[in-house]
Amino acid sequence: MSEFDYDLFVIGAGSGGVRASRIAAGYGARVAVAEEHRIGGTCVIRGCVPKKLMVYGSDFAHGLEDAAAYGWMIGEAKFDWNVLRDFVASDVDRLEKAYTSTLDNNKVDHFHERAVVIGPNSVRLASGREISAKIILIAVGAWPVLPEFEGNQYAITSNEVFGLPEFPRRVVVQGAGYIALEFAGIFNSLGAEVTVVNRSDQILRGYDLSLRERLLQIMQARHIKFRFSSPIEKIVKEGNGTFSVHTEGHQPIAAEAVLVATGRKPKTEGLGLETAGVDLGPLGEVLVDDYNQTSCPSIYAVGDVTNRVQLTPIAIREGHAFADTVFGNNPRTTAYDCIPNAVFSQPPLAGVGLTEEQARTQLANVKVFTSDFRPMKNMFAAVPERGLYKLVVDADTDKVVGVHMIAPEAPEVLQAAAIAVKAGLTKADFDETVALHPSMAEELVLMR
Ligand code: NDP
């Protein structure tokens, strides 16, 4: 008999926690997981999945507009927010069940309550029950940060946006990162008046500059307003469900919803990690080594709570590597180079590897190839929006070190390009590849 109730106790049933639980259980470990919200975590319940469904839902607006050029006579089209919201919610329910079945099928016990650490090998559930485990995995993720300003209780975050009781006719979005621009696009396409306000004078800090400029130009052409260097000072509640949003140096903006998307912070507050001597960083992130081990040898952490790269596929890889290392006798780390990423703005933006700006500071000689094109589908429907692809090449080795694109379906194209960058293929390899015609993706092999 083991001296512990479980071999592994996981706190947080999101992408990282569920993967780690399943793989560890597959190695024969006795595993339990505690989740205070819903099984599936941010990505499945209130992040990537419902967001992508809303992007799909909202993008029909443009398809309907363009359809006439292709001979479709469509009467007056009406959008019903309640239908989209409720279908998205039911799909999230379906996925939560699928994730729960994964735990059940792998004989992982699950507790639907908050758990906190009370020592190197013990946790306490909200019900008061104490459980011991040889290893504890912290996979509690991150939580939206709400900046301090008067009336911030009237703002919503990405946690609440999927459940809005009514469609807001006017929306103010604070922030100009992933979440802000994705939702600005969704609400704009669905017919709301959208104003994006940001504290700095740029969008998507860190992304390739030419792509950011192109996205800003298209979003403005789609009538999304931007107020830069103008963070929210206060929100005043007016009558009829309207808010007055005051931002630095401007007239107040009237809106029915104010979405704040100013980053996400590791969710370690009150988790009791100090009782086990787990070191935290300045944002509350759990500090770990390459094998996801914390300063307390029996406690590990994966995913957003470590604030390394806040992306689902990375949390999954870290969770898998943790389980292989600790329970599968196969020590594994996670590679953080060449992580493909996308912003599901409209149009979307996607990239992998070094941006042009990064390459110019890190490499001796850089060559950049671009294709600035009007997608055939846009041309036919008289939509002026242009796509932009960029290849960043190390001129000394001819290796393609970065691919960046903004265009319809860019994330779908980028995933394949990421294989080439990860594999270290050269610009000559790209040139040798026959174009797939007619497609947007063919631009990738036609840049000279
Ligand atoms: P981001 O870090 O992407 O953007 C934060 C934005 O908020 C920036 O524009 C920043 O301004 C602004 N900001 C930051 N702090 C403050 C503050 N105190 N007051 C006012 N403005 C502020 O965060 P998100 O919330 O959009 O997303 C969080 C993370 O979730 C992302 O980093 C990403 O890892 C992940 N995510 C990924 C998605 C994807 O892969 N498609 C989709 C959604 C989320 P500035 O920097 O200009 O000063």
Automatic annotation (TrEMBL):
EC number of this enzyme: 1.8.1.7
SUPFAM superfamilies documented for this protein: FAD/NAD(P)-binding domain, FAD/NAD-linked reductases, dimerisation (C-terminal) domain
PANTHER family: GLUTATHIONE REDUCTASE
Lineage: Bacteria, Pseudomonadati, Pseudomonadota, Alphaproteobacteria, Sphingomonadales
Pfam families: Pyr_redox_2 (PF07992), Pyr_redox_dim (PF02852)
Gene Ontology MF annotations: glutathione-disulfide reductase (NADPH) activity
Record family assignment: Belongs to the class-I pyridine nucleotide-disulfide oxidoreductase family.
The name this protein goes by in its record: Glutathione-disulfide reductase
Top-level lineage group: Bacteria
Keywords per UniProt: Disulfide bond, FAD, Flavoprotein, Oxidoreductase, Redox-active center
Cited InterPro entries: FAD/NAD-bd_sf, FAD/NAD-binding_dom, FAD/NAD-linked_Rdtase_dimer_sf, GSHR/TRXR-like, Pyr_nuc-diS_OxRdtase, Pyr_nucl-diS_OxRdtase_dimer, Pyr_OxRdtase_I_AS
Cofactor: FAD
EC primary class: oxidoreductase
Chain ranges of the FAD/NAD(P)-binding domain: 6-319
Species of provenance: Novosphingobium aquae
UniProt cross-references to NCBIfam families, sorted A to Z: PRK06116.1
Pyridine nucleotide-disulphide oxidoreductase dimerisation domain span: 339-447
